[in-house]
């Protein structure tokens, strides 16, 4: 690619300007590349459930005289449709977050309330697997942030912990604050994540085990949404994990300090 800035008439005195343009250009090219990749991924990801729906409909057409088959495949169609809905909602969410267009609606929040809301939202899925969600409040920090986005981020982490754990194992959600940093850790004793995958799980559409993720309705977008929500709050999200032992995801935010 020829950088666009070469067409600009730049005199030696404009070294700094030139550098700024180069940087700007590199950045916009990277952004452009990333947007293009995203579009390709989105169409690929949408094709899978649409293809599955079409095949299932075909099977029903052929087996219309057998009510058992019709019922079974109609149920599968509903599951695919649910997955497709989730996928589209998450694509809209990640697009909004990435474009920076979702001007974070900042307000002063009690983080324990946000944690409770996220845990409540994940409870139905946890109950279905007899997974106990244990909340461990070591501190009750206040933070500045967008309540809905923070609930979404923490809920994603708890949903994943439930999703990738065996039935009957507990998931702990602990809240702490130290040195001006509030942290929420979601600790599971699930399947864990290998080193290589740990480096990539925050990427859009990346799944450590695509077949398993697909089966459980995973889209591969959850953690990239969590990462973007953390970034929009000048926070961070990190993972510690060991296959066969479990995973801990830690979401960090600055504690709101009372002006004295
Ligand atoms: P998905 O919709 O597939 O769960 P995510 O972006 O939320 O997408 O997660 C990406 C991948 O990271 C998952 O497919 C899974 O392989 C892995 N993963 C995420 N959370 C956990 C966890 N708590 N335990 C084990 N693996 C996990």
UniProtKB/TrEMBL annotation:
Enzyme Commission identifier(s): 2.7.13.3
Domain of life: Bacteria
Domain Histidine kinase, chain residue ranges per copy: 41-257
Organism (species): Demequina litoralis
Localisation: Cell membrane
Protein name in UniProt: Sensor-like histidine kinase SenX3
Catalytic activities: ATP + protein L-histidine = ADP + protein N-phospho-L-histidine
Broad class of where this protein is predominantly found: membrane
GO MF annotations in UniProt: ATP binding
Keyword set, alphabetical order: ATP-binding, Kinase, Nucleotide-binding, Phosphoprotein, Transferase, Two-component regulatory system
